[in-house]
Amino acid sequence: MSTYTEEVGKKLNALLEKTYDAEKGFKKAAENIDNESLKTYFNKKASERYAFGHDLKTEIKSYNQEIDKGGSATGKVHRAWMDLKALFSFDDEESMLEEAIRGEEASLEEYDDILKETSLPSSTKELLEKHKTQIANGLYNIKTLEEIH
Fold this sequence. Notes:
Elements: H1 6-31, H2 36-62, H3 73-88, H4 92-115, H5 122-148
């Protein structure tokens, strides 16, 4: 039987922190872009990450673990970089798409890392697989947007 270990709790809290960062990053991208289709896409992804955060908090709490608050320093630096690129880039829409793709690929790696954990309870594994599928689908969509752009 799989159990919820302290190590799993730490990994989920780290994922939660990165989820906060992604939500803020998608909001920032939507603010820095004029293309309505991309703005809609980024806002949708921000809402999705908000829901992921809620899901993760509920899962962490269900195993009586503490929830870490806020985003990471890395996330703040990444958003500042996106602002800077938008300020100086001749094609800021393209650079925002590239950053979003890079971020989504990193998210998939984070989910893969946690899903390799052998002590995951089935509820946690199912939740993470659901999120990972949504991220992968979104990555496919954003790569399609990049090709059109």
